Structures are given as structure tokens and as C-alpha cells.
Amino acid sequence: MATAFEKHPTGTGWVVEDHDSFRVARTTFTDQDVLERERGGIFDRCWLYIGHESELPNPNDFVRRSVGGRDLIFNRDRKGDYHAFFNSCPHRGAAVVREDKGSSISFKCFYHGWSFNNNGAFATRFAAGTYPDDFNKDGCANLVSVPRLAGYAGFWFVNFDANAESLEDYLAGAKDFLQVVADHAADGMEIVGGIQEYSVRANWKLLVENSFDGYHAHETHSTYLEYLVDAIGGPAELFPSRGNISRAYDLGNGHAVIEGPAPWGRPVAQWIPAWGEDGREEIAAIYAELEKRLGKERAEQVAYGNRNLLIFPNLVINDIMAITVRTFYPEQPDYMNVNSWALAPKGEARHFRKRRLDNFLEFLGPGGFATPDDVEALESCQRSYRNRAAAGWNDISRGMLRDEPLADDEAQMRAFWREWDRRVAKAG
Amino acid sequence: MTALLEPARAVVSHADVCAFLYREARLLDDRDWDAWLECYAPDVEYWMPAWTDDDELTRDPQAEISLIYYANRQGLEDRVYRLKTGRSSASTPEARTSHAINNVEILAERDGMVELRYNWHTLSHRLQQTSQFFGTAFCTLDARGGAIRIVKKRIVLKNDYIHQVVDIYHL
To answer: Does the CB of A364 have a partner CB in chain B at under 8 Å?
Structure first.
């Protein structure tokens, strides 16, 4: 029998595993130095989600986003090219964009009036003699671009490390799952109007784990599941080609997903009796379009597969009874901000959109039936980590002996923690 | 005051409206969920819109995100069921709430249907933390029958950066 609590030779010592055991030290959820190392080793070096292409449909559109602790402008210039800038005037630092969203060919700082084209170029003319004639020859008066910006399947990411690997290499096996989400609709996907913002008094990694935890649902969400039995009005058609089994997949570089059937209705495209016979025909038509466009195997995956996807470190896309796109960032070891949006097919028929939003609101967000109970659990864990001197380790070993891990095992979390350990160790 | 000498009088007075609103709020504070549900008509539309990046409220609950939206009372009944199970860990232990209502204005009244708005402020204490929620509510009351009932309610939550949960007992 191998000894547990053996650290990775190259790791932090906070993640220890053997062939049948996997433990994480609770200090990783509480200590300020761990957060500092996460900032340097993870948030300053990984690709972080900034927005969806549908949020900037036209040239000159912009949104303001908080990403990885920075205040950013994500925009398109007059030609339609995408940019990400630090939202800070090169002169004294005031925010150049103060609205959360808009459309503008230029940005003007409200403090002294410096202005910039929406490609970042400084655009103020000063009276002769005010500054040297070659002022800004080194670009010091332009808006500062985020070092890297790239998109994949409609999802845009930034990286604060100019030397980072390409987004596609970084995404590894997660690319295919981003594509599955994009494949829902022939005309593309869009972020639905309105945002849910909430805070949680818990470490951000607890929300990582919870977002693709197939194990907690029956206990934490029993009241939602009881509601669901009434609401769906009978059995749904599940995911036949997968033998109705949910599995976990390690997608490389810390990304992972759980995928499988679920009993709720999916607007794309799993019918439930509560939607009636008309609804059955409509869902069949959506399914037929999927199969024609994508082939049978992919169509089944889109229609019947529920996915809880983590893109390391902090993007969650849960393609379940509706699709939520969620990011979160630690302000403190025990406090995070969460932003959450709904994603839906562009031009979706109104009554499908309504079903989708009903599904979304019923389960997700601070007014839903599930999210608040999840948050309660995360905060309860966080509070009890004050016992960490005596009760110092979390167990993440469920299903380690299985060759093909199930969604209610914890292989997906182990994938996250191994990458976390590797990156934080390097930042030490 | 006699009916003969007065023009057609309002079916309900401002004081009646206030008494109804205070009672509804008190039923939440007292966690008298079943009596609270009776303040609502079966076909009530109960809606708390979300805010957009433009700092506007979402306008169409069937096409945009809301914080809570129910097209009828069934959704409120589901919530009460869930609260009563004691198995929603976010609501057990229950929050102690204190609702305050002010600036009640009757906007229109016709044939016993009363449109009104008011400001509301709820303090909520749970697990040694006090949170607060505040905003404006727009209601239509049906005062034609015996008991007044709410047939439409749109709740504007002004501090929409929410810690963990917002539920009916906060509003």
C-alpha cells in the first residue's frame, strides 16, 4: 500500500496524490500568499475569457470588462478588428471608458480630455510648444493593449503574458467542446441581454469544483429535482448512444468536462412531455437540422449531451437546461465576484427562448433554485477551513480506481488541481 | 360623507392600499408563507428584471434575462414549497427579515384595478451577517372583490450586485 500525502516532486506540496488517493491542503483556500502565487502563476499567465463575439456585433462596438483583476476595454475598431486595452489613460490613469457598453469611434478621458481612436492611437492635437514635436513617437500616449487577444468558436480570451502559447494550443482538448456549444445553431450563438452578478464569501477554487461536480446534485439540489419531476411531466428521451451514462473527460492543460444525459428539457433539442405534442414536432425539426448539418453522432451530442465545461482557470460553460457562461475572480482568498450570462442560438424562436429562460432562471443565478444552495455549501466549506490546523486536507479521490471515470467521480477536479499545482509551483 | 353627494369614489383609499402592502410585507417577515401566497391572484405576473450593460432594466422577460420571472402564481407556490421543505440550504436556517415600505403612490385607478408604486427596503440577517435589498415596486391590485389581490408585480432591485441569494422573502 502506497503512502498517501506524498507530494509531487515538482509540486507545491499542497496537492498530494498516489494511485488511489488525492488530497488538497485547505491552506490553498485561505492563505494570502497562495492567492499572490495564483495571481502571478495563473491569472497573469493563462488565457482568460473576456467576452463573446455576439457582444460586439458591429465595428466601433465596445464593452468594458473586469478580467483577472484588470479593468479592460474589449472593442472593435472602425475596420471591425478586435482589440483589448487596459482602461487607463496613459496621461494620469483615469478610466477612459466609464460606460459598460456602447459604440464609439473614439474614447476620451474625462479628466484632462486626452482622446484616442478606437484602435488605441492617441488623437489629441496640442498647441505648438506644449509638448515636443515628436511627442508619442514611442507610442507612450496610446492606449496600452493587452499583450494577447484571440478568439475561438466565438469565445474571446486575453492573456497578460506576451510569451504565452497560442490560444489554440492552450485550449487543447477543450476546443472541441467550445465547438459543440457553438454548433447549437447554424447562425451562431449570442449572449442574451442582461447579466447576473453576485458575490460569494468563498475561495474561487471551490466554485471551480462545484461547477462541474456531478456528485453533489442529489443532496444539495433535492428541492430542485423534486420541482423538476413535476415540471417535466414525464420521462424525457435521454442520450441513447452513450448508454445513458455521464462521464468525465480530462481535456489537457487543466481543462475538463463532464458530459451525459439529464432529465430536463433542452431547447436544443431534448423534448419533455410538458412541452406538448406541438413542442415535440418543433424539437424534432430542430434535431433534424442538427443532424443534417452535423451528422448523427454530433447532433446527438449537441441535443442530448449536457456539459459542464471548465476552461482553466476560471471560465465555466454549463450547457445544461440552458447555457450559462460564468467567470469569477478572487478579490481575497475567501471572497470572489461572479459574472454570469446566458448564451442562446441567434434568432431563436420566441417561445423557445422563453422556455430556455424559464429553465435558466429556475436553476441558475442568485434568484434560482440551485445557485444559492451551491453558494451556501461553498461558504460553509470556507468557514470551516478555520479548522485547517487540525482538519487540514480535502479528499478528491472519488473514482480514482475506475478506468473510465464517471461524472459523479472527481477526475475532472483532479485534472484542474494537477494544473493548478504545476503552475503555482512554478510561481513560487 | 354620503354616496349620494359624492362623485364616484375610489373603491380603495390610499390608506387601504398601504394597509394591504404592510400586511403582505409583514407576512413575509413572519414567514407565514401560505397567507402570503393568498395576497396574489392565481394568474399574477411576478417579475424582477435584471439590469443590462447599458444600465437599463431588461424589458422583455421572455426574451432577456431576469432575476426572477413567473407568468403565474405556480412559480411562487414552488418557491414556498421549497422553503417549507427545510432542504434549501440557502434558506435554512431562515433569514430574519424586516421589510419597510414607503413613498406609496397610486398611479391610476379604474373599475377597482389600482396601479401603484412604492419604495421598499428589506434588511435581512442570517449567519451573523446583515444584508439589505432596496428598490421600487410597481403593482396592479385587483380590489374589485372581497380581498385585495396582486395581479401584477414588477420589482426593481436597485442594488443588484447580490450576495449569494435573492428570494421572495427579501422583496
So the answer is: no
- Residue labelled with grid coordinates 475569457: A49
The rounded Cα A247 to chain-centroid distance in angstroms is: 20
**pTM for this prediction:** 0.89
**Within an 8 Å CB–CB cutoff, is residue A234 touching chain B?**
no
Inter-residue contact B158 to A373 (CB < 8 Å): no
In angstroms, the CA B102 to CA B17 distance is 12
Q: Is the peptide bond before A267 cis (omega within 30 degrees of 0)?
A: no
- Kindly determine whether residue B51 and residue A372, on different chains, have CB atoms separated by under 8 Å: no
Q: How far is A214 from chain B (nearest CA, A)?
A: 18
Chain pair A-B, CB pairs under 8 angstroms:
121
Q: Phi and psi dihedrals of A16, rounded to 5?
A: -125, 135
A367 in contact with B, Cβ within 8 Å: yes
pLDDT category at A358 given cuts 50, 70, 90 is confident
CATH assignment of the domain containing A253: 3.90.380.10
Residues, chain A: 428
The answer to whether A369 contacts B55, with C-beta atoms less than 8 Å apart, is no
Domains of chain B as residue ranges with CATH: 14-170 (3.10.450.50)
Asked if residue A101 lies in contact with residue A65, where contact means CB atoms within 8 angstroms, the answer is no
Question: Whole domain around residue A211: which residue ranges?
Answer: 183-426
The CA-atom distances, in angstroms, between B159 and each of A24, A242, B57 are: 37, 45, 12
CA–CA dist A118, A105 (Å, integer) = 5
Nearest in space to A170 (alpha carbons), one of A154, A152, A145, A183: A152
Across-strand partners of A198? Answer: A338, B162
* DSSP at A166: P
Asked if pLDDT for residue A2 goes beyond 50, the answer is no
Q: Which residues of B touch A225 (CB under 8 A)?
A: none
What single-letter amino acid sits at A418? Answer: R
Q: How confident is the model at residue B10 (pLDDT cuts 50, 70, 90)?
A: low
What are the chain B neighbours of A217 within 8 Å (beta carbons)?
none
Same domain, A102 and A234: no
- Scanning A115-247, the segments in alpha helix (DSSP H) are 167-171, 174-182, 204-211, 217-220, 222-232
